[in-house]
Specification:
The chain has 25 helices and 21 strands. It is of the alpha/beta class. The chain has four domains: 64 residues, Distorted Sandwich (Calcium-transporting ATPase, cytoplasmic transduction domain A), CATH 2.70.150.10; 240 residues, Up-down Bundle (Calcium-transporting ATPase, transmembrane domain); 157 residues, HAD superfamily/HAD-like (Rossmann fold); 123 residues, Calcium-transporting ATPase, cytoplasmic domain N, CATH 3.40.1110.10. The strands form three sheets. Strands 8-21-20-19-9-16-18-17 form an eight-stranded mixed sheet, sandwiched between helices. Strands 1, 2, 3, 4, 5, 6 and 7 form a seven-stranded antiparallel sheet that branches. A six-stranded antiparallel sheet has the order 10-15-14-13-12-11. Helix 1 runs antiparallel to helix 3, helix 6 packs parallel to helix 20 and helix 8 runs antiparallel to helix 20. It starts with 7 loop residues before the first helix and ends with a helix. It comes from Xylocopilactobacillus apicola. One of its GO terms (cellular component) is membrane.
Length: 740
């Protein structure tokens, strides 16, 4: 079942009542008590961050809610003798509901008329199809594979089986994506570290060095503010929400915000032929006779096929194409219908005097297929057409009556889309239930690499054979539903990230197994409700936008997080240095706020929303750490040395504080320059605009940010360490680059 979006109150509460906002509130109270109002300059930034987060998430929520309403599954129910179409949360106990192939069962029910096959794999883990007839119980969360029925709802909402199952599973938290998990770790470590460091700094200054309360508070707050990654989590939340909103404008619905990141990192994309490479509509191109048939009444055989089509309850696109070709067939009387199954690859109808089959020739006729017929089938398969056989059982043998050739056109933008995947180093595997030669031919038309390497999955009898085939082939035909899941499992076992597209109920288990699942909008309700991403207009070319959005998020947030980590690591090192050296923290809160604004916050937000389509390699945390450490260590060494030399030469602490601000900002801009490379017009604007903003604020609001004139001696020391910073950072960058 898909997750609901947070409500307005939940979004507001999530942004206001945070751990770090509580820390900021406590710090603000301490500064007010100490009378250091100037050092409250961080408060407007904190408030602005919170308001921006609320506004952007509410804006995204409005767009996503509208899209969710359009895509939400609707069910037909019988109320007061009339059929009504209602949403799942409007279902009531004792409603009579109509269920058909492709639907997810929304509530516990009992069959009162008809017969269906259901798959309960999402509930039980077993993938077998279970037949349900009059009196059988249906469990919510399972889905209809074949057939149609009427059922009476016995338990809805919180009383249903799936709701109770979900309640039991609440203690098991969903694993966040790699990037979000790493950011959570950064925030968690910072959140744990600031309390003991703050307590030690206060205890050391107030009790051991007998400094005034006001002085100790300002010194402690300066250290803590630098350690808090106040905008990082907000930046991630807003970036992901805006990505979801942008994709919604392309008719792409995200059920899971993590999916864009997963798709951006995907190595293998598994697709079906229909709905991705080809249109989601089929057309009968030819009806032809079998060779050496004993059933020589051609008109009679076509009338029988028309009756079969009229009687069948199948609703898939093949059945729709046949109904379009034979719209006026006369139904068989007293017929027993066995719907199409992806396992058997055919459907059946039994009448009083005959038993008919319609499906894949290899499965209906088996080894008794006429060689001449096989040649005709292969000729059409080589043109990308799909061939079905209409047959009847005669004297314990299956006799072909007619062959039906069906085709569906290549999507207009399919070639461009699959070329894009090739350019982006994403391997494509086509997994289909159709004839492998047909699938291969169509895959060649859109230039899928190695499309001529195909295999008939029905010949792969063991898991070992299937694993070997995955290494060799790009096209799989005659794939059964359980094999789809095994293919996904094997690809993942090889250390690759895999995404899976699907449109039918038989794709769901494989989609659940994949790192990311994408449903086609014209597909079954069950597939759409189970998927992480839904292409509402069934346009597969939107996959380019999804991957681009994911890569934009990962690449830009990696750069932005590097800036935040720079400040956090530096502040932690300097705080530990202050504790060990029993000295006051050299930077004031207002000075840290100036750095946070122009070295970190503004450029981080500006860079977070730039288009960036490069595939990201390496773990998020490792990449950001290795990028931020050179600048953080350089700043720490320069400022630590400045503090020591300042004490040696008896330079005023206020002068050292201003010079430290200069050194910290200089290293920060050196890091920003590295992150912005290669410079384009937008990045130049961000880089030089940040420098100009800091200079102007330091000049016009020098009192507010504690930037005062300093002694000539301090200027000379700062100049020496500024020159040293460039060399130290360059060499540290070269050293850490070895570990990328």
């Amino acid at each position: 079942m898909k997750k609901k979006n947070d409500g307005v109150a939940a979004i507001v509460a999530k942004n206001i009542f945070t751990y770090f906002n509580a820390i900021f509130l406590g710090i603000s109270i301490l500064l007010i008590i100490a009378g250091s109002y100037r050092n409250l300059t961080f408060l407007p930034i904190v408030i602005a961050n919170t308001l921006i987060g609320i506004y952007q998430q509410l804006k995204a929520k409005r767009i996503l809610d509208k899209l969710s309403l359009i895509s939400e599954a609707k069910y037909q129910v019988l109320r007061d003798g009339q059929k009504e179409e209602v949403l799942m949360d409007q279902l009531l106990r004792d409603d009579v509901i109509f269920l058909a192939s492709g639907q997810q069962i929304p509530a516990d029910a009992e069959v009162i008329e008809g017969k269906i096959s259901v798959n309960e794999a999402l509930l039980t883990g077993e993938s077998d199809e279970i037949e349900k007839a009059h009196g059988s119980n249906l469990m919510s969360g399972s889905f209809v594979v074949a057939g149609a029925c009427r059922a009476r709802l016995t338990a809805v909402g919180a009383d249903s089986y799936i709701a109770k199952l979900q309640a039991k599973a609440k203690e098991v938290k969903e694993k966040p994506s790699e990037m979000v998990g790493d950011i959570n770790l950064i925030v968690k470590v910072a959140g744990i570290a600031i309390i003991p460091i703050g307590v030690i700094l206060f205890f050391e200054g107030f009790f051991l060095k007998n400094q005034s309360f006001d002085h100790v508070i300002v010194s402690m707050v300066g250290a803590l503010i630098g350690m808090i990654p106040e905008g990082l989590y907000l930046l991630v939340t807003v970036a992901l929400a805006l990505s979801a909103a942008r994709l919604a404008k392309h008719q792409v619905l995200l059920h899971d915000m993590r999916s864009t990141e997963t798709l951006a990192r995907v190595d293998v994309l598994c697709v079906d032929k229909t709905g991705t490479i080809t249109d989601n509509k089929m057309k009968v191109t030819e009806i032809f006779d079998p060779q050496n048939s004993t059933f020589d009444d051609v008109k009679r055989s076509k009338d029988l096929l028309a009756s079969y089509v009229a009687t069948s309850t199948d609703t898939n696109i093949t059945a729709q194409a046949l109904r379009q070709y034979y719209p006026d067939g006369k139904k068989f009387e007293h017929a027993k219908i066995i719907p199409f199954s992806s396992k058997t690859k055919y459907s059946e109808i039994k009448t009083v005097d005959a038993h008919y089959f319609l499906g894949a020739p290899e499965f209906v006729l088996g080894s008794k297929q006429n060689p001449e017929d096989s040649t005709q089938i292969e000729q059409r398969a080589a043109k990308g057409e799909r061939v079905l056989v209409f047959a009847r059982e005669s004297a314990s043998q299956i006799e072909p009556l007619l062959f039906i050739s069906i085709a569906n056109g290549i999507r207009a933008n399919a070639l461009e889309t699959f070329r894009y995947f090739t350019e982006q180093e994403v391997q494509v595997k086509v997994i289909s239930g159709d004839n492998p030669l047909t699938v291969s031919k169509i895959a060649k038309m859109v230039e899928i690499p190695n499309a001529d390497q195909y295999v008939d999955a029905s010949t792969l009898k063991t898991k070992e054979e299937l694993r070997d085939a995955i290494e060799k082939y790009s096209v799989f035909g005659r794939v059964k539903p359980d094999q789809k899941r095994e293919i996904i499992k094997s690809i993942k076992a090889g250390g690759q990230r895999v995404a899976m597209t699907g449109d039918g109920v038989n794709d769901i288990l494989a989609m659940k197994e994949a790192n990311c699942s994408i449903a086609i909008g014209s597909g079954s309700d069950a597939a759409k409700q189970s998927a992480q991403v839904v292409l509402l207009d069934s346009d597969f070319s939107h996959m380019k936008e999804i991957i681009s959005e994911g890569r934009r998020d990962i690449n830009n947030l990696t750069r932005s997080a590097t800036l935040f980590l720079y400040k956090n690591i530096f502040s932690t090192l300097l705080a530990l240095f202050s504790i060990i050296g029993m000295i006051s923290y050299p930077l004031q809160p207002s000075q840290i706020s100036l750095i946070s604004m122009f070295n970190i916050g503004i450029p981080a937000f500006a860079l977070a929303f730039e288009a960036n389509n490069k595939k990201q390699h390496g773990r998020f945390l490792k990449v950001t750490l290795l990028r931020s450490l050179p600048a953080a260590i350089t700043s720490f060494l320069a400022i630590a040395c400045l503090v020591i030399f300042g004490m040696v030469f008896s330079i005023k602490s206020t002068d050292v504080s201003v010079a430290s601000t200069f050194l910290l900002s200089m290293a920060g801009f050196m890091l920003l320059y590295e992150i912005c490379k290669p410079l384009n017009n937008y990045r130049r604007l961000v880089f030089y605009g940040s420098i100009l903003g800091l200079v102007l604020c330091a000049y016009f609001f020098h009192y507010l940010f504690a930037i005062n004139s300093i002694s000539y001696q301090c200027i000379m020391l700062a100049a020496v360490f500024a020159v040293a910073q460039e060399s130290i950072m360059r060499n540290l960058t070269m050293f850490f680059s070895r570990f990328h």
